[in-house]
Amino acid sequence: MKWLKKSLLTITLCLFSTLQLITAAASETDDIQKLLQTLNDKIERNPTNTSVLLKLGDLYHDMGADGNEDAVSKAEKYLNKLLDIEPTNAMGRVLLGSVTTMKARDTIWPFSQVKFVREGNKVMDAAVEAAPRDPHVRFIRAVNNYHMPAFLGREKVAHDDFQWLWRVVSSNPDEFEPEFRQKIGLFWGRLLKKNNEPKEAFKVWSKSLEWGEQTSQTEELKKAISSLPSDAKESNKS
To answer: Cβ–Cβ contacts within 10 Å for residue 58, how many?
Structure first.
């Protein structure tokens, strides 16, 4: 049982750190509570407003990613309401799957942790299957699965998602927000580095910076490049 306890602790820690990376900027926004209040007021006046339900679910998802257990419950509530009205809403479904994996972080029961992670992955997979060409849906699953322990078998899922995402945003950069592009570049480069492809990682991180815009990911990209061996950087300059 020791291996199981160790593996489940890994799930908990990885989910906590990984999910924080999805949308840390939202939880740091000074007026986040005002925005939530405005959205809650709107949903009280019109409980079936699917756009507001999605925004509430998204924002509470982000807060839950920062360790707020109450926000996890609220995100689940609003996303379930959304899906009751629009069962085919892929963004709502992938967020619900991500929220479900957060419940694994917040429970002390080992088998419940595994159950929530597997259920969450199943829901996210269904969302991506329904909208395979939606970059934002793929991104939520990709980041969520990025730090999953190897025994859960999600490494290839994260790899394939980020590979596809990088191809899409690098081919049509003007169609996406600068921070979104750089987040994808940062994660894809990390995967390349992990797979012993530092030269390719350097190319990805460099291109992400060459887009020029200063975002919350810019410093992380610079740190990532500085972590590479000198020969990986020099060979690309020549």
So the answer is: 20
